[in-house]
Amino acid sequence: MDDKILNAAKEKAIAGERLNFDEILALYRENDLIFLGRAAKLMKERKTGKNVFYKVNRHINLTNVCRSNCPLCAFQCLSGDKRAFTLELPEVEKILQDFKNVKNLSEIHIVGALHPDKNFDYYLNAVKLVRKNFPEVEINAFTPVEIVHFANISGKSFEEVLIELKNAGVNSLPGGGAEIFSERVRKIICPKKATAPEWLEVMKIAHRLNFKTNASMMYGHIETIEERIEHLLELRKLQDETGGFKSMLLFPFHPANTELGREYNLRGPGSHENLKMLALSRITLDNFERFKAFWIMLSMPVAELALSFGADDLDGTIGEEKIIHAAGASEAGFITPEKLNRIISAVGYNPVSE
To answer: Which of the residues 10, 99, 270, 327 has the least number of beta carbons within 10 Å of its own beta carbon?
Structure first.
């Protein structure tokens, strides 16, 4: 390891200055978790002070029937599979009626699979139904992968799809589906779904249309450390251009029940690696304000620790969630605002419910 590069990287990280590829790699390879946590916490507090955010939110997964059959995914299945489900609009209505019992609900999160038979109107009508029942709630719906799918099945451009969704009531886009931007990796883990350039293009257009969006990276499968860094730098580059990303999420790969996990005998990253990647990503993405610790994927104890490693957002109360649990996540799908407040306060931060 080049000491000159490492020393420069450490000085920049503490000062909050921009790191280059070699400096990021040097920090990763040194493996000093305490230093990374200290630098990331400083970066977090420069951005959002002593505040840690969360939403009172609920998830709706519309379907798990998918045309892509990605090896990385445990959620998807083919039509006719005994696990297959697709919510019709009356079923969505029933779920929404249950949501009306949720005190201070601020967000409804909608994602699913790429159904081979449902047309774009199905998704538009689901959004319109949510907006009819909840005129003021933020609708955070459909990843760029889903937007590409909607464009393909409707013959519309990405921009036309996004405008129609916006008119129907969508306020913001989740950041899923980015996985790793490396073409080498995507050919193996998700060969039939949106490409990295398509994902980035959808986000670029969404930012121009004033959607709030998240960004993400899924790591801990067959990618290299260099490919992780290249992914982060692509996100940083787009954020420099548009400023449209609100939050960053890191998704540690859960291999259970996945074809990819079985074929490559993967175990997924551990807590040390998860905290290390969170801190390193926070330092690298100097132009991002928020970093989420997605507690369903990390586990709540690790998410709590993540608040000292650069995270400033615990996402939300969530409720029922199917995608991550299908891959073996063991954390319960619901947490109360009161418990989130206690966790955040115990770390010495101020809980902020949005």
So the answer is: 270
